[in-house]
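Morning!

This is the sequence you dropped in the shared folder:
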Amino acid sequence: MKTQFPVAVVGGGMVGAAMALGLSAQDIEVALIDPGGLNTATSPKCNDAHSFDRRVSALTLASEKLLRDLNVWTDIEPYCLRYTDMDVWDSAGSGRIVFSSADVYESSLGLIVENRVVTSALHQRIAERPNIHVIKDQATALQSGASGYSLETGGGETVSCRMLVGADGALSRIRQWLSIPTREWDYGQRAIVATITTSRPHQFTARQRFLPTGPLALLPLLDQDRNYRCSSIVWSADSAEAGRLMELDDASFKAALYEASEQALGEVVDISRRFAFPLRQRHAKRYYDGGAVLIGDAAHTIHPLAGQGVNLGFEDVAALLDEARRALSRGVPLGHEEMLRRYQRRRQAGNLSMMTLMEAFKRGFGHPSPMIAGVRNAGLALVNKTPFIKKELIRQAMGV
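The structure's back. Tokens below.
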């Protein structure tokens, strides 16, 4: 097995796979290390609440562009639901804001797709690339030296590289081995995810209602029968409330969801198995160390209330690929400090700004004060009546 590479990417999820594929398109030889290897199975066509993957993402048009550039979009698009509207409202008052793609002369605000569809499409292309070497193993140790990095795997192999990319998730071993500090805190909330079928169609609208214990998001999905009654829910709630909701039987949970959503989609007819995971914000204080660099959740994790997590990761990929292209054109070695410093400058401030904004939303809408509730409701109403502000918010959310 070949053991020396210009670049090694640790983590084969959506962000890591996109990074490896983008580097290979620049004729760079890449090692992709992931214990799961490649999953090239074609995703099934889904028609009910029980056939969808529990993990879905709301992709921006900027993320769509990256996936088009990587030549995987044709395999993803048949599974995507393009949503045209977004309806956001406060449970404590009458404040509401409605966004429409028509406001900015676009056909949609974004797309909802299962994570497994995106991963499978990326992995299928990776399997076709002779300059991507997939190592189905766990990285267990890291050593650095003058010529780069050496990764030990669980199988006893040593993989050497000049530039190392950590795309191994929120609990990144690469970040820990590099001793890169983070700023982080627990939100005191858990996110409940599931797929539902409702009595009324979703009308290509993403919905979010802010409750005192946390936001409830209803994300429209594409069912292959085109009934448009399937949606993914992300219900973020204070830990005690989330625990109570998870203990309910399906009938009681469906009733609670019906009330929490203000019957926006009618009755909840069916629901998949529910999953819950704790929410924690985490941001690396620096994105690189020597010739090693962090992308995606390894560098930053964010509250899911705006659905921006994977989009920020794809923006990291686009920026790092651009800097790699720039470095090569100027004769600068991959992983050179100049290259990685430019990447950090491009991405760190923007990621931090988005995280700060989401924290402000979370705290503002979760505050019990009637005075604050009145202010935020007035703010929503004002923005809803101000076309210029709405258009700017839409464009930022779309990544255009």
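Headline: The two ends are 43 Å apart (CA to CA).

More detail when I'm at my desk.
O.
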